[in-house]
Amino acid sequence: MVCVKIGLIGAGRVGSNLAHRWTEAGHDVLISFSRDPDKLAGVARDVGATAGSVADAAAFGDVVVVSVPWGTLDEVAGEAGSLWGKILVDTTNQFGPNGVIALPTTAAETNRSRFPGVAYAKAFNTLTAKFQTDAADRPKDARSAMFYVAEQEASSTVEQLIEAVGFVPVSLGGPEDAELLEAPRRDGSVYGEAYRPDDARRIAAEYYAGGDAAALAVELKLPG
Description:
Helix content is 38%, strand content 17%. By secondary structure, the protein is of the alpha/beta class. The protein has a single domain, classed as Rossmann fold. The longest helix is centred in the C-terminal third of the chain and has 13 residues. It is globular, with a radius of gyration of 16 Å. It starts with a strand and ends with a helix.
């Protein structure tokens, strides 16, 4: 395993669980973005990371992970400054005060444009924080799939990080292909659903072939 320096922007349930799993796997994590510095320091201590500002996380990480509420993304982009040449992993979903926000393109493409010069990936957004925490300790032969999209330069690193938190990575393509894994939960989407790895690969293969991946997404999702 190659140790990855990760600047994590977001200390909520998803972000703190990722930080915990990644430090356990031997990665170096700096966690940021909390209105309460004492709480942030406590989270960092609990998960084996260090704490800092958004700018610190942006400077520290070869990989920068953004796990914040949708409405704060412009603020985060401003505080982070240039991320040129880094890998950006986006865990967010386009929820606002009144539910899902309508966008002219995929949420992934919208966020890709917020962070110029990055190698972009979207992952860890389809499953709840509780599911990600509970499923992370499953044995290898019982792991769930984790769908992601990524630009080519980010793909192998993102797969490594997904595997490190106890999931099997399954690619759906690039940011322009993200609709299938984006909110809201609905028939024909993989958002909010769990899949066995082989079934997830079938969905991805059907999508790449231009077939009815949405029908497979409904047929193959696990109960619950």
